[in-house]
Write the structure tokens for this entry.
Amino acid sequence: MTKPLIIGVSGASGLIYAVHALKYLLAADYTIELVASRATYMVWQAEENIRMPAEPDQQELFWRDKAGVKTSGILNCHRWGDAGDNIASGSFRTLGMVIIPCSMSTVGKIAAGLSSDLLERAADVQIKEGKPLVVVPRETPFSLIHLRNLTTLAEAGVKIVPAIPAWYHHPKTIEDLVDFVVARALDTLDIDCIPLERWKSS
């Protein structure tokens, strides 16, 4: 049985990145352990005027509906405040964790070794266990504090994949730009489940 991948969703603008990641991962039959931070609820309200449910079973239906994947894969949702959940344990085996999108607040707390919620604790566990952790920061411009925190994470082995799309694959839609970022984030985990035109030399 394939080990699960943890998807963390923090309170940064750009929830479409998380939705597209789930879309492709679930369609490819991955097992996903998802934890959304408390601030994610506010971002859904601000970006889409949608209320994200708090109950894990209802949240699973919510994310599947947004991703357009009803049955494929396995999706387990976790309460943001349940710091004693399975993904908070170093003995819980995973493929790694991707925080997409990742707020600068979350970056700062992880860089400082703080774990005020399940998302941060799960990320801290990935680092201490030497497991892959990928963060997709969605902020601009980066302040010196942001850059120092990101550097601290990079020095600890965390992969930093800013939400910066490319154009060499000739994107036609916003979704094409989003898919590029998601694909590059998953590339760091050697997961290739997104149809993407990759760079070809002339």
Notes: The beta strands are 5-9, 31-36, 74-78, 96-102, 133-137, 159-160. The two ends are 41 Å apart (CA to CA). Residues 15 and 48 are 10 Å apart (CA to CA). The chain is about 40% helix and 15% strand.
